[in-house]
Amino acid sequence: MTTILVTGGTGTLGRFVIERLRAGGGHEVRELSRRSEQYPVDLRTGAGLADAVAGAEVIVHCASTPKAGADEVAARHLIDAARSAGVRHLVYISIVGIDRVPLPYYRTKLAVERLIEESGLGHTVLRTTQFHDLALTFARGLTKLPVALVPTGVRLQPIAVDEVAGRLVELALGEPVGHVPEMGGPEVLSLDAVVRAYLRASGKRRPVLGVRLPGRLSGALRAGGLLTPSNAVGKGTFEEFLGRG
SS3 for 8? Predict the structure, then answer.
């Protein structure tokens, strides 16, 4: 029996990873989060981490926060605990474009990748595009006002979170292989198309106006910084996600 620890076990991705691991059977699966009943851990301080990691062979690191630099602190605590416990495989979920898009959160994710690569631990890193849930969040945010002002030229390649969870489980049950091919959704959509799909699905009515934004960030997004079209392996579309409502 393999003991597998999943950080961020109550989060958007982590809960699907845990469900799939438990459904497969044959493993002890530990759900790690600050709200976990069995393994309450604060990765920011490392409190409770040593006990949670003890005896684990594999860690799937899904926990993340947009707070600047916090993920690096958490990763250092997790890596130290994994080394002490003799963990043989650390699987990390990352984001397509973190080396192209100048966002502080992306710089942090890239820094965490490097910490893991230099940790001496067996590791696997998977970069994916944005989950459908995040595309929906964007659309909701842009349609709060009477007129939806949508940045032009921005494209997304949203992917189903359960498909990413399935891939992470495959990787966790395999051997450490470093970086694996990126994973993107089945279609590239303009942000305008994402917003209009949301308006149709929700029954809302809003005029949609394109706005060209200046700056390096906007330029990187217009250049396709969030995309991996050659790795469009996802199956579920954004409209199908909206239809499940």
Answer: coil
